[in-house]
Amino acid sequence: MKQKNVLELKEVSKTYAVGERSMTVLSDVSLAIRKGEFVSIMGPSGSGKSTMLQLMGCLDRPSAGRVLVDSVDAASLSSDELADLRASRIGFVFQAFNLLANLSAVQNVELSMAIGEREKAERRKRAEELLKLVGLEERAEHKPSELSGGEKQRVAIARALANEPSLLLMDEPTGNLDSKSGNESSGSFVVSDNSVFVPVETAKKILNQTYPSQFFILVKSGYAPDEVAASLEQKLLSLHHVTAEEPDFTITTASFIQSTISEVTNTLALFLGGIAAISLVVGGIGVANTMFMSVLERTREVGILKAIGLKDFEVLELFLFESAAIGMVGGLLGIVLSFILSAILQWVNVPSQITLDLVLLGLFFSALVGVFSGLVPARNASRLQPVEALRYE
């Protein structure tokens, strides 16, 4: 009995716009893959292998022609329906792995089943079974950053198999595996050939450029990068027939990048320092205003305290202590906000660290601002006459 076609391409074409021109990557491709078949797509770099796999996996739509998965025309489906189709019938192993960095290996495998709404216990059991199948049962709780390239590739393979798809597509699945793992995978899955290097002339045709736009130069040990850069600059100026004042190229060295980062860091430090200074001034005004109102509202209380023997200096100390406490509360709130800001900066990969010395220094200056700002109201309170204060309503 003839097996049913699990995938069909019918006169499929794909064209991309490159500036004002169009580039046809695929033209009138027809293909039928039956259930149980293993097919390898081979061709030189830039021949459209990855583009074809993306169309087969319904990750993209063709410019012309039809793609049918299990006899379902992808063109007739909405975006949500295509997503359901990919979740239930297609497994895709990406060349770049596409694992979620904040999830462990087993959680990455579970993810596709969670989208398919499988029970949690069932998801975990199958994910562990699949990781064992690809030899990663001992690395199940490790995150992608803790895995090698080959291990990431095997996690991607396990994830692709999770929902038992009828169609499994793999873009260069053995490129990051060792020879043993690569042979095992190629014996079990659909594979395409590896393409690591692209000749310059081929790259020019693919990118529609007549010359390379960038060069990366690795300087051998023993040579000064800045001297090499200066020599290269003179050579390029001569070849391009331009002056140093109006070059048509840019040379960037590691020291230049480091210098730029340092300048940005210093500017950011000045900016934050300015904000801190303004915050101290505003906070000081706030403390002074609070203390003025406190003295006004507690005038009668001051009169009573003085009436029972509290000295002027002790009244001064009392109010200065209160103003320092208010300043420190403000400082604590600022420190909490600083920790939150630091966490946000680290989350976006901007180095940031708050040390104990900075915390203590912040509290000290907060208390000092509080004392300085509360000095005048405290002095006014200490100078109140008991009788006049007791009369205040």
Distance between the termini: 104 Å
The CATH superfamily of the largest domain is known as P-loop containing nucleotide triphosphate hydrolases
Q: What's the level 1 CATH class of the largest domain?
A: Alpha Beta
Basic shape: elongated
Mean pLDDT: 77
What is the CATH topology descriptor of the largest domain?
A: Rossmann fold
Residues in β-strands, percent: 5-15%
Number of domain units = 3
**Low-confidence runs:** 182-199
Number of strands: 6
Rg from alpha-carbon coordinates? 35 Å
Structural class call reads alpha+beta
**In order across it, which strands form the biggest sheet?**
2-1-3-4
Number of helices: 13
The CATH level-2 architecture of the largest domain is identified as 3-Layer(aba) Sandwich
Can you summarize the main beta sheet?
Answer: 4 strands, antiparallel
How much helical structure, as a percent, in the residues? 40-55%
Series of H and E elements: EEHEEHEHHHEHHHHHHHH
Descriptive overview:
The protein is of the alpha+beta class and 393 residues long. It has 3 domains: 5-186, 3-Layer(aba) Sandwich (Rossmann fold), CATH 3.40.50.300; 221-251, no CATH class; 256-391, no CATH class. Helix content is 54%, strand content 11%. It has 13 helices and 6 strands. The chain has a 4-stranded antiparallel sheet, covered by helices on one side. The chain is elongated.
